[in-house]
Amino acid sequence: MDTVKPYVIGLDLGGTNSVFGIVDARGNILSTTAIKTQAYPDVNDYVTAGCEALDPIIYAAGGIEKIQGMGIGAPNANYYTGNIENAANLAWDGIVPLAKMFSEKLGIPVAMTNDANAAAMGEMTYGVAKGMKNFIMITLGTGVGSGIVINGQVVYGCDGFAGELGHVTMDRSGNGRLCGCGRKGCLEAYCSATGVARTAREMLSTSSRPSLLRELNREEITSLDVAIAAEKGDDLSQEVFEFTGKMLGEACADFTAFSSPEAIVFFGGLTKAGDLLMKPIEKSYNEHVMPIFKGHAKLLVSTLDGAGAAVLGASALGWEIK
Q1: Is there a smaller number of Cβ atoms within 10 Å at the N or the C end of the chain?
Q2: Pairing state of beta strands 144-150 and 95-96?
Q3: Exposed e or buried b for every residue in 284-303, given b needs 16+ CB within 10 A?
Q4: DSSP alpha helices (H): ranges in 82-134?
Q5: pLDDT attached to residue 3
Q6: DSSP letter at 87?
Q7: What is the model's pTM?
């Protein structure tokens, strides 16, 4: 019988930075290292640099023989194939067999999935969804990502790309906001951190209402600026969060209809707004969810530390490799 080794490697591969961590079974990150993703337009050089950066922390953990496997969370990553496929925010074009490349270089099994699915895995393994078999993870950052867990398994669909809840259409008028995916009216265009800033700019430009945000360069306003102003009692900024939370609540009510989750877990920078966002989400959700599902799903904010959560999420894949 194979003995389970004490550690796994997690890689959070972002468009700017790639953070590697050695993680134990309790979710403790023993050590981390990082490289600049953008510094390696050739993926072969990227894998070489990543393994070189890993060498000292693997050595400090007792060597590669102590590592069970490696999990990677990355944009446009396909769990079935281990490939990154046509990622818009990465320098590598086309199909990149990244899991295979790291596996061959390190000599350990490697699994990969997209970053939102990795976040769901991390939450189920280490976070507030531990012990849950049915939940939805919503990541609120530059975009809106999601990971759907049903009967204890992440939903990947026939092609590995299921669960793009950020791209459900919320405005079907044909005049909705243009989304990064090329379609109009997507949830992501309104309820991401980028969407919150855009809502604020629209409200400022279509009214003459006083607002603390008028002291800032309108084109440089961020969701953090809106949250700070809202916390200071700024009416317009609070209305931005009411609008955002209302739409998220409506969307989550629809999501509940197809998977009946135990919880919907929110993760990402936008959740730092706290009750400014969560109270409108909860109010809207309760108003729109089907009566049969009322009172079933908890609306939770991830308890995983933001800096390490993505690494933890990726590392959770490492324990799943058979």
Answers
A1: N
A2: unpaired
A3: bbeebbeeeeeeebebbebe
A4: 98-106, 115-126
A5: 65
A6: -
A7: 0.88
